[in-house]
Amino acid sequence: MIKKNKSVKKPKVAAVSGGFDPIHIGHVRMFKEAKKLGDKLVVILNNDNWLKLKKGCVFMPQNQRKEILEAFRDVDRVVLTKHKPGTKDISIGKALAEIKPDIFAKGGDRHVKNIPTIEAAVCEKIGCKIINNVGYGGKVQSSSWLLTKYADKINGRKLKKSK
C-alpha cells in the first residue's frame, strides 16, 4: 500500500494594524478588503501606551477595543502590541516579526512614502508583501476627525443625559 503525501497548505495570513480608537467605517472597509487578500486576518491593535504616546490620550481602553475587533466576522485574531509606557518606538515591527504575515495591508492613509522604516525592514526580512491603500475610497474617515468633530459639537453645550 502506497501512502500519498498530503501536504497541508499553510493558510495565507494578512495583517492590518491601528489604534482603532474609535473604530469607524474606514476600518470596517479595510478589514473586508484585507480579508480578501488572505485566508486569515490578524489585526495588530496598538495598546494604550502607544495611543498615549502618539495621540496624547486614550478614548477607549485597549481591552474594549480588542473585544469589539474580535466581534467582526472578517477578523480571525487580534494581537495587542507590547509597547511600554514612555517608549520611543511606536512602530509595530516587533508584532509583525512575531506574527510573520504573508501580507501587511495598510489603510487609506498609507502609501510607499509614509511606511515606517522599521515596518518596511521587518516585512522585507520575513518576506511579507506590503499592500497600501486597502479598503475602498482611500482615507474616508479618521478616529481623530470623529473625536474632534464631536468635541467641537459639544464644546460649550451641556450634553443631555441618557435615559
UniProtKB/TrEMBL annotation:
GO molecular function, one term: nucleotidyltransferase activity
Name assigned to this protein: Cytidyltransferase-like domain-containing protein
Keyword line: Nucleotidyltransferase, Transferase
Domain Cytidyltransferase-like positions: 17-112
Lineage: Bacteria, Candidatus Wolfeibacteriota
Organism: Candidatus Wolfebacteria bacterium RBG_13_41_7
One of the Pfam families matching this protein, by short name: CTP_transf_like
InterPro entries in the cross-refs: Archaeal_FAD_synthase, Cyt_trans-like, Rossmann-like_a/b/a_fold
